[in-house]
Amino acid sequence: MQATFRPVRALSPHPAAFLVPAMSQREYTALLEDIRKHGVQTPLDITGNTVLDGRHRLQIAKQLRLATVPVRHVALNGESPVSYMLKMALLRRHLTDDQRAALAHRHPG
């Protein structure tokens, strides 16, 4: 997937993003400082203007008043956006065993 840039103001998190546990304050602060120094390095995964993976990066970009962020347009190929979002959270995030089990229950595939 080729990354492009989109205006931060045009993007919003998926309405079901609350299903994925939020970062701890320590993780969020570390990410904020990294983005402040280096910008957003990992593209947000989007469909349309909806962020499926990267809501914290988007939130920080808004907080830092960044104009644009790198994005990758996701080809869902019939997969639901919520399923994709949960799958990515299971693969990428440092979740507790309980959080991982709860996500796996929401996304059995």
Structure write-up:
The structure is a single chain. A 5-stranded mixed β-sheet has the order 1-5-3-4-2. The protein is α/β, with parallel strands linked by helices and 109 residues long. The radius of gyration is 14 Å and the shape is globular. Helix 3 runs antiparallel to helix 4 (97-106). It has one domain (4-14, 21-106): Conserved hypothetical protein from pyrococcus furiosus pfu- 392566-001, ParB domain (Alpha-Beta Complex), CATH 3.90.1530.10. A hairpin with a 2-residue loop joins strand 3 (44-47) and strand 4 (50-53). It is 41% helix and 18% strand. It has helices spanning 25-38, 55-63, 81-92, 97-106; strands at 4-7, 12-13, 44-47, 50-53, 68-73. The longest helix has 14 residues, at 25-38.
Tally of separate domains: 1
Structural class: alpha/beta
Strand content: 15-25%
Spans of at least 5 consecutive residues whose pLDDT stays below 50 are none
The CATH class label is Alpha Beta
Query: In the CATH hierarchy, what is the architecture at level 2?
Result: Alpha-Beta Complex
